[in-house]
């Protein structure tokens, strides 16, 4: 099996709040939007993020309704920016769009990173980071210093 | 904020089982492996999948230990293959590597897809799909029919 992810799909209890946050709030463009079901955004070359109605997700994956939280837990998405200043600026934009700060911008434990955390309206955690040791070469290979 | 994900990070209760599954089992190559902490795999141009020790993830995101499940829940990763036959074949490989079938290969509800689901040793859900309406153009733009 190739070392490749094509879709990241997240259980989303409130799709309307998600649409508002990512499109009106952040200015993102959905590739496909099926109200009440799923919204797809392209988030990297060849990669889609799917925000999938939480009940449909539960049914589709055969998960039990009892006990498990409705949304996506134990996972985060990271977005890298070009400077420390941009970390605070981007977190400000996410908050303006309806996000909630989980961790104010601060230096990370290793790697020289500076980062903060914001939850979207469905509790999906976004890390906004400046990571001077991270770069992507011309053909898309990631390098970590 | 650009419409871009750079890292997908998953809380991983058993990093050693994850390493065994993805490297020995599937033949994947880590970009970085810090035993007891995190394993990074590049999974798309410019995108890393980070399997992060679940307790470190919890501490890093300020989550409470009580109630929340330790691993990643309410999310799945999808891997597309070129034919219906490859769906069954790939699922067989994941099972051979130590995965657990959650859904046998079958036709999906819409879009003409044929897919199945496998959980990795930490419960991370992989969808293996043949989706004839999905393609990626030369510059990495995804098209959905």
Automatic annotation (TrEMBL), chains A, B:
Record domain VOC: where: 4-131
Protein name, entry field: VOC family protein
